[in-house]
User: Fold this.
Amino acid sequence: MSAGMQWDLRGQFEAADGDRIGLFALDNNHWAVSWAYGAPHGPQLVSYDPERAQEVFEATRSRYEGQGALRYDSRTAWQHGSL
Assistant:
C-alpha cells in the first residue's frame, strides 16, 4: 500500500453484545467492511467495491438491529458524512 493512502471511516455501529462493525473507504476508491468480534474471535476486514460495501454494511446493521438494540450507531451520533 502506498504511503499516501488512508482509510476513512464512513459508518460504524456497536451491537449490544460488543461486536463492532465499520464501513471504510480508501482514498483510491476501494471500500471495506470490518468486523471486530468479542473474544475469542479476531477482527476481519473484507474489501468490496463501494456499492457492495455499503450493501453489506447496511444488511449487517439491519440484522443486528433485528436481534436487539445497538449500543452505538453512527447514524445518530455523527452530524454529517455517516451512513
Observations:
- The longest helix spans residues 50-67.
- The mean pLDDT is 83.
